[in-house]
Specification:
Chain A: It comes from Xenopus tropicalis (Western clawed frog). The complex is a heterodimer. Chain A has 26 helices and 18 strands. Chain A is an alpha+beta fold. Chain B is an alpha+beta fold. The chains are: A alpha+beta, B alpha+beta.
Chain lengths: 660, 572
């Protein structure tokens, strides 16, 4: 049986119609388990049911009680799905793909599930209609597996060949940029707007405006004038756990930014001193003992023992004196220093912070460029130049009920360090804020991603090489290109379809895609096809409705019936997202009204009212569609789930096999 | 075969959480909290099923730390109140109770959750900005030249803890002592980097509360048999005592030899080497004219003997907790080396005394300056003594907070009723621009504001547990209580003549309305100079910082509970 036997797939839905599918699963313990679109859809819909309540600006929180009894209050789709601890293989694939997507863009798990569900629903509807286009002339019952397999390939073709094109050509005029045109600097208003939209989906109603302002402020304060944004964002992401401090028992409004960094330890020795001070980092015991881990000490006589003990004490005393002579006033240590070191430090007016986590020392190193000091005796005394660094201010700081150490730096190579103090009444809530803010920087990183145009998924490029060159030749005239290209891809796809069951090459190709997705690399290899970095567009479903419009109009002109079908399937599915955004509202804000208004404005080339909608990163949005298409192309290609007793050599649990 | 059990999937309860489930999970908790609230609150006895320690209390800090709740929503509430208490140690019951009331009332409303959250947030902002404004009528600036306001503040903390079992006189006495102890911890010198001293509580069981006292300096417990061993025959030294404080062990063990092994030949006597070093140290101390040695850890008996012969008092096993106060009080730096001790490490004391209290003996360290004191706290039995200790700690924290932010709020329910009156007035005169900003209708705003005010008034009403009538005056918005017939209220003899906080007397023609009933919105007036501070000095004050934070925590937590749409539990 499969690892993690799903005998307890237990998801209690009060009054929701998804119970059916899960109950079925409970009974079905036998592998191999046949899988078709219907079952995948059922699983996806049960996930959709869970996330849609937390989706959009009106979404609610989830209170998660961990097995340890700790609380977590979250609206993060990723946390919600992961906390469900799902057992169904299909559900696990979906959650895994969604999380991979989120680890790149920092957001979009809920949208991922909604879009996935939308596409699956549309596909199901298309197949259930007596649609002979897809079955390639054969009858449906015999060959559904074959149809799905083809669909899987079509999805990939669609993404690389049509979607990228449409986004580059037709959607990009609607994009705005976060850079001010005149000065080529960041527009703080746009950044604020992007963050507002992001936080409206991620944290509670109560505090989103405050947190969004705080994060935008933090971002701007950390930016030095001459440094690239990407580097700063990268440093903030990697060091975020050191750059923030959680404070419990205070309202969120007390959150603030403090300059410098906070070391999450107390002073072991504190000697107040004004002005700039010199500091060193040490990573080993300052005081030496008689023996060490690889040194055995032989005691031969009383006098020897006595003298060696005195020598060691004096050594520490002298070392500390030497540091004082070098005007060192602060020692940062990763290890715990014994009492005697603290004593001599105090005597020489040197402050000590010990037991520092390695990550915090690393951050200090990144900021100052200093390296740690070796305390081998001769080394310090003989060397004239100590690797020290200057600190503007070093003082104890009281955050909540705990004392920490605050370091302020005079200048910095990579970023202007600032620390975020995040307050909240409960631990679970601050955790949520921390993860949301951390992901916000991931989202910003994605926003500033430098873009390589049209880097097509690796192996598919070989197959459709001719299409691609053709496309490049005639980039000027969109319509002509598309129709031309369609003609080509008709032949291509048809031949593809015919040879599918027999050609070993194409099967290999499909398998390759699958494994790549399972390993989660594909998302990382993808590059956004949008020309400019920092492209944004209005939120509130604008991207989805725009893409829907262009896909539909493209589907009408498209001569290849299969691709046209995929276009309209994806196009319609996209509307699932704005539908969920506007579901709770009444009257003039309902989805149909908004959609009609939007389309008519688009057709008449009128300006669309977007001031209320906020802004979203275009690159994240494209990434979302791409990730969903990848996930689907994998899901529909699976027809059996095989349970294995032992853990397979590679890490995948679910193998798609073709028993045709 | 496999010992690794497959993880069970989580149990997911979908929302929106219905009213009944939330109410069920909060109702018991709320009942407990409500009945503890205020000076007339009922006492709770907490014990576990298998016997063990019994806790008698009505304090939030003790109650919330001993609870264990199973319902998710209650867990959330308890966690957030615990965090508040750990920072402020006061107003925990206020926050918990307000949160329960708000949740209860908000769930009854038939308004979109987000509108409720938004409006309640704007109401909270209104309260906070009013409270932090200078012309706020329900706060009083603390004048540190007079002990009166601070005493009132402490007395209201002490009197709201009935489980201490204090009479009015005893409560007054303890309040004075708490203030005295607090003043002792304020250092004499001024300048930057000021650190408050410490008052160390010394609990003594079985004595009357009136035997409690505050003594400057520290009391170190020393059993009778240790006494003769430590103190030289010449007796305790008199004035100008030079003190050495050691943080390392002087036991003479060869410890801290590193991670490697030590090969010791048979001929080597390590004990002897170590003892020699100790004796050299002792000689040095005697040469330096040290009179008193204090050691955090153990002192070798031979060294003790040597020091005793040279009329040096040696006291060991001080413990880590007292190191900091001793160092602060005497100026001594903890010594961590057996050799090369600089002169600057020594501290000084004004005197040493023997002190006996009950069956216990103490050595009393009398400092030259002011910064550390011992608070000898007596009470008749263990449970009430523990409660009294908690009360004193809470009161000390409240005083520290007040020192930082020198304002106090009117207590006795007056702040609550005053705020409620203000909110009612402001929400009745809400501008339409504010409503469009909140994206809600005037009726919705009014409903939420009503719930908010009713919750605040319910808190004020909660102060009365004996069925007495509570009312609000329609001029200043203060809270007035009238004891029911027959109930003897010893806290304020002239009940009904004075408002809850004691700053106002009932004047002729003051219109009142029963608390909880509807009244015409009015703008609550600030007190004129003449009305404030009447002859009586029995005001009831609350800590400003703690109460403001409690208000914010309560509203935030209520919004959080309201915003929950799912509960997922991991049963593993």
């Amino acid at each position: 049986m499969c690892k993690g036997i799903p005998d307890m797939f237990f998801l209690e839905h009060m009054g929701l119609p998804v119970e059916v599918d899960l109950c079925q699963w409970k009974e079905m313990k036998k592998y191999p388990l046949s899988l078709d679109l219907n079952k995948v859809l059922q699983v996806a819909e049960s996930l959709e049911n869970i996330v849609c309540r937390c989706f959009g600006p009106e979404g609610g929180h989830v209170l998660f009680i961990k097995s340890t009894g700790d609380l977590l209050i979250t609206r993060d789709g990723r946390k919600i799905l992961e906390s469900l601890l799902l057992d169904h293989p299909v559900a696990r694939i979906v959650v895994h793909s969604a999380c991979n997507h989120a680890s790149v863009t920092g957001d979009g798990v809920k949208s991922f599930v909604l879009l996935l569900c939308g596409v699956l629903r549309e596909l199901q509807a298309a197949i259930n209609k007596k649609d002979l286009i897809l079955s390639g002339g054969t009858t449906r019952n015999q060959n559904q597996g074959h149809v799905l397999k083809r669909l899987s390939n079509l999805m990939m073709t669609f993404q690389t060949e049509i979607l990228e094109n449409i986004i580059v050509k037709q959607l990009s005029p609607h994009f705005e940029t976060v850079f001010l045109k005149e000065t080529n600097t960041l527009s703080s208003r746009t950044i604020q707007s992007v963050l507002d939209t992001y936080f409206s989906g991620r944290i509670g109603y109560n505090n989103r405006a405050f947190i969004s302002r705080l994060v935008a402020d933090y971002f701007h304060r950390c930016l030095p004038h001459n440094k690239s944004i990407a580097d700063v964002v990268h440093t903030v992401i990697t060091c975020f756990s050191e750059l923030h401090t959680e404070v419990l028992g205070e309202p969120i409004e007390n959150s603030k930014i403090i300059s410098g960094i906070v070391l999450h330890r107390q002073f072991a020795v504190y000697c107040p001193s004004g002005g700039k001070i010199r500091a060193v980092i040490i990573t080993e015991q300052f005081h030496q003992y008689l023996s060490a881990s690889d040194v055995t000490f032989a005691v031969c006589s009383d006098a020897q023992l006595h003298l060696s003990q005195i020598f060691l004490r004096q050594r520490t005393e002298k070392l500390m004196k030497h540091l004082q002579n070098m005007e060192v006033r602060l020692i940062l240590s990763t290890v715990k220093q014994p009492e005697i070191v603290l004593f001599y430090a105090k005597q020489n007016g040197i402050s000590v912070v010990d037991c520092l986590p390695a990550e915090e020392i690393e951050l200090v190193r990144i900021i100052t460029g200093a390296s740690s000091l070796s305390t081998a005796y001769g080394d310090i005394v003989s060397r004239q130049h100590l690797d020290t660094f200057l600190i503007t201010c070093c003082q104890p700081v009281l955050l909540g009920s705990r004392k920490y150490v605050q370091l302020t730096f005079s200048r910095s190579l990579t970023l202007l360090p600032h620390s975020l103090v995040i307050c909240g009444p409960v631990k679970g809530l601050t955790e949520q804020l921390v993860s949301a803010i951390h992901s916000a920087f991931k989202m910003l990183q994605q926003l500033f991603q430098p873009v390589v145009t049209n880097c097509v998924g690796l192996d598919t490029a070989k197959n459709q090489g001719c299409c691609k060159t053709r496309k490049r030749e005639s980039v000027q005239e969109q319509n002509v290109t598309c129709s031309k290209y369609q003609k080509d891809s008709v032949c291509e796809c048809n031949s593809h379809g015919i040879s599918l069951n027999h050609s070993p090459e194409s099967i290999k190709c499909g398998g390759h895609i699958g494994s790549r997705i399972i390993n989660g690399d594909i998302v990382l290899q993808m590059n956004s096809p949008i020309d400019n970095t920092g492209s944004v567009l209005p939120g509130g479903g604008t991207f989805e409705m725009l893409l829907n419009f262009y896909l539909q109009s493209f589907a009408k002109q498209c001569q290849d019936a299969e691709l046209a079908l995929v276009c309209s399937v994806v196009g319609n599915a996209l509307l699932n997202i704005p539908q969920n955004i506007y579901k709770a509202k009444k009257r003039n804000t309902c989805f149909l009204f908004k959609y009609a208004q939007f389309i008519s404005a688009l057709k008449n080339n009128e300006a669309i009212e977007t001031s209320q909608l906020g802004l979203e990163s275009a690159s994240c949005k494209y990434q979302l569609v791409a990730s969903v298409l990848h996930c689907i192309s994998k899901l529909v290609a699976i027809d059996y789930i095989v349970g294995v007793k032992c853990i397979p050599p590679n890490t995948t649990n679910d193998e798609s096999t073709d028993d045709v | 075969m496999s010992r690794v059990e497959a993880k069970k999937p989580s149990v997911c309860t979908t929302g929106p959480m219905n009213i009944q489930s939330v109410r069920d999970s909060l109702s018991v908790l709320h009942g407990v909290i409500m009945s503890c609230y205020g000076p007339l609150g009922r006492i709770k006895q907490v014990h576990n099923g298998t016997g063990g320690c019994v806790l008698t209390t009505s304090q939030s800090s003790a109650l919330f730390n001993s609870f264990s709740v199973s319902k998710p929503v209650a867990k959330l509430l308890v966690a957030s109140i615990r965090n508040h208490i750990s920072c402020f140690s006061d107003s925990g019951l206020f926050a918990a109770s307000l949160c329960c009331y708000l949740v209860d009332h908000f769930f009854n409303l038939n308004i979109a959750r987000h509108t409720v959250i938004k409006v309640s947030r704007s109401l909270l902002n209104m309260c906070i900005s009013y409270l932090s404004a200078d012309d706020c009528a329900c706060k009083v600036k603390v004048d540190f030249n007079s002990s009166k306001p601070l005493l009132c503040l402490i007395r209201s903390v002490v009197s709201s803890k009935p489980a201490c079992m204090l009479t009015t006189q005893e409560a007054d006495y303890i309040s004075t002592l708490i203030l005295k102890a607090f003043i002792c911890t304020i250092p004499d010198k001024s300048g930057p980097n000021i650190v408050l001293g410490k008052s160390v509580i010394v609990p003594i069981e079985g004595h009357s509360v009136s035997e409690s006292s505050v003594v400057p300096g520290l009391l170190i417990e020393m059993p009778e048999f240790c006494w003769s061993r430590s103190v030289p025959s010449s007796g305790l030294p008199f004035a100008e005592i030079k003190l050495a404080l050691f943080s390392i062990s002087l036991s003479g063990d060869l410890c801290d030899t590193g991670e490697g092994t030590l090969n010791i030949l048979n001929s080597v006597d390590t004990e002897n080497v170590m003892l020699d070093q100790l004796l050299i140290l002792g000689k040095k101390l005697v040469e330096d004219r040290v009179n008193f040695l204090l050691c955090q850890k153990v002192v070798h008996p031979s060294l003790k003997q040597y020091l005793k012969e040279h009329s040096v008092v040696a006291v060991d096993r001080l413990g880590a907790a007292l190191m900091e106060p001793v160092s602060q009080m005497t100026g001594a730096q903890p010594i961590a080396s057996l050799s090369s001790i600089p002169d600057t490490c020594y501290g000084s004391l004004q005197g040493l005394h023997k002190m006996s209290m009950g069956s216990k003996h103490y050595i009393h360290l009398i400092p030259t300056g002011n910064s550390v004191c011992s608070f000898v706290l007596c009470n008749r039995n263990e449970t009430s003594l523990k409660e009294l200790m908690r009360t004193c700690e809470a009161a000390e924290r409240v005083l520290q907070l007040t020192l930082k932010n020198p304002w106090v709020l009117l207590g006795g329910g007056c702040t609550e009723t005053h705020l409620a009156a203000l909110l009612r007035y402001k929400s009745a005169n809400m501008h339409s621009s504010g409503l469009t900003e909140l994206n809600c209708t005037a009726a919705e705003y009014q409903l939420v504001a009503d719930c908010f005010c009713i919750s605040l008034e319910a808190l004020a009403r909660n102060l009365e547990h004996d069925g007495g009538e509570m009312s609000i005056d329609l001029q200043m918005g203060h809270c007035w209580s009238a004891a029911p017939d027959g109930a003897v209220d010893f806290h304020c003899s002239d009940t009904g003549q004075q408002c809850g906080c004691g700053t106002h007397r009932k004047l002729e023609g003051l219109k009142c309305s029963a608390l909880g009933s509807r009244y015409e919105p009015f703008c609550p007036q600030g007190s004129t100079e003449k009305q404030l501070y009447p002859k009586s000095d029995k005001f009831v004050f609350d800590c400003f910082a703690a109460k403001c934070n409690a208000l914010q925590v309560a509203v935030n937590t209520a919004s959080l509970i309201l915003d929950l749409s799912y509960v997922i539990e991991d049963p593993n």
